[in-house]
């Protein structure tokens, strides 16, 4: 087991956001976390990497409970996080953004270099010295993923990578995620877009109002149109 | 002509130290979001330690080695401060951080006197730079030339550090989004600590390099911090280039201002700062910050007016306070009057700070202006006391109207720095314009008339005014104006979106608070019979801040309790120890770290916990104007 989340509860101030969230990710697997806006996908990811202060439960990564560790230590264990809002460092160039993410090699994870990442995202290679603030949304999305890969993670939490992107860029994103998978990176991807998720995922969980209400393979999900319609369609 | 060139070069030389200190402040702020008030204190310690080391170590190596060692030693002190104190309060509201570092500054001021004594210390001249160079009959100290070169060199080194090293890239990234940096596996703690160390090193180096030019003394921290605040406000907080350009600008203005307004050269700097703020409120090289939702405190309880029972309790407390003259002696009554006056002062700041969300670090300016207003009217115009009391505060009102107009263009720490700089400017005028204000000697003989002369009558007067002011401001909190002000505090954008003219509302609040403070100052002048520049000094501004925080920022009337407790404690403390600043500074740090909600806030929390089943409200027990004694 790569990652196991058990009984995760999170609060923002007095508001209880996540209720007993639990899910698992196998070695090399791509798992989708599906749900509508505000269902709790981003909060789940933020809680896993320790960016939500008020949380309880167990987060077991590669056999170690990391739930009490500070964010940077969790990430250094090899658990990469790509935030939804992209959060590019706008004053820093593409290369400098990558430098911030750089971490030493890890024995159980693929090793990413700038060259390898520029091959994965050719657009970035053409604008190495451009400040992050002067890039399009799609280029920024690629840069956030590349920046996280510079940490050589063995698992990546990808928060809504397709959001707000043009169809052409979404295609590139699918290719990139499949390449990451082929290299051996485990991935949890949060999505509202079922079609996008279907292209990349092995299994899916559905989250609604802070609770996991379905877990299974993509085929199992397709066999239950009632669940899909109740929790995913607009 | 040669004279002007020399004057220009002198300005450039002064800019070097100013730039070092200001860039340190900027770097620290950029990453940690802490405006390090103690930066001036680190500058001062740097100068003192450098003085000692350069005296002990001999030769050229001893001198330069001593300077660098001093800066390193102070950087180490900075690391300890960061790890022990600041790490606990990074997530506290910015006001608490300013206040905690101010508390440190107070402690340092007493400590350096304890260690190095109260006298000015004149340091060694720099080996190799002892002479002067003749420039068309004018002398330029060669050490000045060294400093002129040093400034740009340090700028270049900093530029390389930030552009060409991994550390620099991480710092620049953290300046923009520190959580994201942590989410990429960077240990923020050590990044913060190292940034703080570099910033403090620069401040201490700036101080150490001053010893061949200026005497070392225990008030140099406040002087430099005010100049540095002006520099970073002009240059833009967080910008090193901005710090450099603004340091040169301010130093040149000082150098030439002396020629134009010999007595009050600081006016020129003020005018330039005002002009910059109108055109670019975020400074010449700064970037406008996205308006963030700011809360004045840690949690917000909805405010509500007092219930009729609570009103009765408050009235009873007032009546009890009014009986003080029946059994207390003259000294107690004078102390009581002073406390009542400080209740007025604290309540006025509380109005601006808690209701308006604008934390002024220079509120004493308006208190002092009220006092000077009374003194001018009474001594120069010879008007009767009642007229003076009514008109005197108008000087505070006018000051607040002028400075407030500029100050409300900014928010948060910029607002705090600007109000502090304004207050220091008013202080400088009162201190330097001897022919009008009497300078350090103040204005004496402002005594109350017969009807208010006896301690008991004056006490009733002060108590009555304090009660009226408190009631009036409280009523305003629950008036439409108060709603608009609180809406502006909670969300500037949203309140503007529903048609509130936010800047005008805030400006009005500033003027109301300033005028109210002026009323307190007017009474204070009569209580003391004299007016001094200290009546508008920084330490008085901070007294007011501590009173508000001690009472509780988030409460409606905590400032009343805060003022009573703090002032009584302060008067007692000053009578007990010579090291009042050390104790007071320690006390402030303690409040910030241990009781961030203040006395009344704590009582409210306790009361709420006791009646858990009932809906949350803020049972403000009372606003008793009790006597100390």
Automatic annotation (TrEMBL), chain A:
Main function: Involved in beta-(1-->2)glucan export. Transmembrane domains (TMD) form a pore in the inner membrane and the ATP-binding domain (NBD) is responsible for energy generation.
Lineage: Bacteria, Pseudomonadati, Pseudomonadota, Alphaproteobacteria, Hyphomicrobiales
InterPro entries, A to Z: AAA+_ATPase, ABC_transporter-like_ATP-bd, ABC_transporter-like_CS, BCAA_Transport_ATP-bd_LivF, P-loop_NTPase
BP term (GO), one: L-amino acid transport
Species of the source: Bradyrhizobium nanningense
GO MF terms, alphabetically ordered: ATP binding; ATP hydrolysis activity; branched-chain amino acid transmembrane transporter activity
Domain spans labelled ABC transporter: 3-234
Entry keywords, A to Z: Amino-acid transport, ATP-binding, Nucleotide-binding, Transport
Name assigned to this protein: ABC transporter
Tree of life domain: Bacteria
Family: Belongs to the ABC transporter superfamily.
Record keyword ATP-binding present: yes
UniProtKB/TrEMBL annotation, chain B:
Keywords, in A-Z order: Amino-acid transport, Cell membrane, Membrane, Transmembrane, Transmembrane helix, Transport
Alphabetical list of CDD domains matching this protein: TM_PBP1_LivH_like, TM_PBP1_LivM_like
InterPro entries registered for this protein in UniProt: ABC_transp_permease, BCAA_transport_permease, LivM-like
GO CC annotations on file: plasma membrane
Pfam families: BPD_transp_2
Major subcellular site: membrane
Membrane-related topology note: Multi-pass membrane protein
Subcellular location, record wording: Cell membrane
Spans traversing the lipid bilayer: 6-27, 34-51, 63-86, 98-117, 145-162, 190-212, 224-249, 256-279, 312-333, 340-361, 381-406, 413-434, 458-485, 505-527, 547-569, 581-603
Coiled-coil annotated residue ranges, if any: none
GO biological process: amino acid transport
Entry annotated with the keyword Ion transport: no
A molecular function (GO) term: branched-chain amino acid transmembrane transporter activity
Family: Belongs to the binding-protein-dependent transport system permease family. LivHM subfamily.
Name recorded for this polypeptide: ABC transporter permease
Organism: Bradyrhizobium nanningense
């Amino acid at each position: 087991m790569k990652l196991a989340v058990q009984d995760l509860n999170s609060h923002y101030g007095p508001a209880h956001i996540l209720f007993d969230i639990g899910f698992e990710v196998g070695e090399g697997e791509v798992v989708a976390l599906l749900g509508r806006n505000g269902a709790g996908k981003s909060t789940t990811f933020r809680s896993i990497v320790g960016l939500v202060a008020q949380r309880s439960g167990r987060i077991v990564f590669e056999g170690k409970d990391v739930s009490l560790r500070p964010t940077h230590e969790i990430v250094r264990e090899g658990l990469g996080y790509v935030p939804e809002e992209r959060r590019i460092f706008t004053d820093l160039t593409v290369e400098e953004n990558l430098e911030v993410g750089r971490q030493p090699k890890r024995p159980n994870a693929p090793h990413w270099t700038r060259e390898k990442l520029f091959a994965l995202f050719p657009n970035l290679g053409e604008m190495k010295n451009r400040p992050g603030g002067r890039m399009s949304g799609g280029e920024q999305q690629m840069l956030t993923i590349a920046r996280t890969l510079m940490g050589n993670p063995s698992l990546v939490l990808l928060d809504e990578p397709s959001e707000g992107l043009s169809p052409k860029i979404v295609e590139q994103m699918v290719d990139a995620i499949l390449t990451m998978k082929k290299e051996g990176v485990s991935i949890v991807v949060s999505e509202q877009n079922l079609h996008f998720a279907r292209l990349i995922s092995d299994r899916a969980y559905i989250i609604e109002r802070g609770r996991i209400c379905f877990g299974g393979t993509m085929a199992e999900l397709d066999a239950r149109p009632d669940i899909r319609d109740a929790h995913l369609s607009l | 002509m040669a004279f002007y060139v020399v004057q220009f070069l002198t300005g450039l030389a002064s800019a070097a130290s100013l730039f070092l200190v200001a860039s340190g402040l900027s770097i620290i702020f950029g990453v940690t979001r802490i405006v390090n008030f103690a930066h001036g204190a680190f500058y001062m310690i740097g100068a003192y330690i450098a003085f000692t080391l350069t005296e002990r170590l001999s030769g050229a190596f001893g001198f330069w080695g001593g300077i660098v060692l001093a800066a390193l030693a102070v950087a180490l002190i900075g690391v300890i401060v960061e790890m022990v104190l600041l790490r606990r309060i990074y997530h506290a509201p910015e006001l608490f951080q300013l206040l905690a570092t101010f508390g440190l500054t107070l402690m340092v001021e007493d400590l350096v006197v304890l260690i190095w004594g109260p006298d000015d210390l004149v340091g060694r001249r720099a080996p190799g730079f002892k002479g002067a160079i003749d420039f068309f009959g004018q002398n330029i100290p060669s050490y000045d030339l060294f400093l002129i070169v040093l400034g740009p060199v340090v700028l270049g080194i900093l530029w390389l550090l930030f552009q060409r090293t991994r550390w620099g890239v991480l710092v620049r990234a953290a300046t923009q989004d520190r959580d994201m940096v942590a989410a990429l596996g960077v240990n923020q703690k050590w990044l913060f600590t190292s940034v703080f160390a570099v910033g403090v090193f620069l401040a201490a180096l700036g101080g150490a390099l001053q010893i061949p030019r200026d005497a070392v003394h225990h008030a140099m921290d406040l002087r430099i911090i005010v100049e540095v605040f002006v520099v970073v406000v002009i240059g833009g907080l967080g910008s090193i280039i901005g710090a450099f350009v603004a340091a040169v600008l301010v130093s040149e203005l000082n150098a030439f201002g002396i020629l134009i307004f010999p007595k009050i050269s600081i006016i020129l700097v003020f005018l330039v700062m005002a002009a910059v703020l109108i055109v670019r409120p975020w400074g010449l090289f700064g970037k406008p910050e996205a308006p963030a939702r700011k809360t004045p405190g840690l949690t917000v309880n909805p405010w509500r007016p007092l219930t009729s029972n609570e009103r009765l309790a408050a009235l009873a407390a007032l009546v009890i306070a009014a009986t003080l003259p029946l059994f207390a002696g003259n000294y107690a009554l004078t102390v009581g009057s002073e406390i009542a006056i400080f209740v007025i002062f604290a309540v006025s700041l509380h109005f601006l700070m808690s209701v308006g969300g604008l934390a002024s670090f220079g509120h004493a300016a308006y208190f002092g202006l009220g006092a000077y207003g009374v003194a001018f009217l009474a001594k120069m115009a010879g008007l009767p006391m009642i007229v003076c009391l009514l008109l005197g505060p108008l000087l505070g009102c006018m000051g607040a109207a002028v400075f407030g107009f500029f100050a409300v263009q900014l928010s948060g720490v910029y607002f705090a720095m600007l109000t502090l700089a304004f207050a220091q400017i008013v202080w400088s005028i009162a201190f330097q314009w001897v022919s009008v204000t009497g300078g350090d000697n103040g204005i004496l003989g402002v005594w109350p008339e017969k009807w208010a002369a006896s301690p008991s009558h004056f006490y009733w007067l002060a108590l009555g005014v304090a009660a009226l002011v408190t009631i009036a401001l409280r009523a305003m909190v629950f008036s439409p104006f108060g709603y608009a002000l609180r809406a502006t505090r909670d969300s500037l954008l949203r309140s503007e979106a529903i048609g509130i003219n936010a800047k005008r509302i805030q400006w009005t609040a500033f003027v109301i608070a300033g005028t109210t403070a002026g009323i307190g100052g007017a009474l204070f002048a009569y209580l003391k019979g004299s007016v001094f520049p200290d009546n508008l000094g920084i330490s008085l501004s901070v007294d007011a801040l501590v009173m508000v925080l001690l009472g509780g920022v988030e409460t409606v009337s905590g400032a009343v309790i805060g003022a009573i407790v703090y002032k009584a404690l302060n008067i007692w403390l000053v009578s007990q120890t010579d090291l009042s600043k050390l104790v007071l500074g320690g006390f402030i740090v303690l409040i910030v770290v241990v009781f961030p909600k203040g006395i009344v806030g704590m009582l409210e929390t306790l009361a709420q916990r006791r009646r858990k089943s009932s809906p949350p409200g803020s049972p403000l027990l009372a606003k008793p104007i009790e006597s100390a004694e």
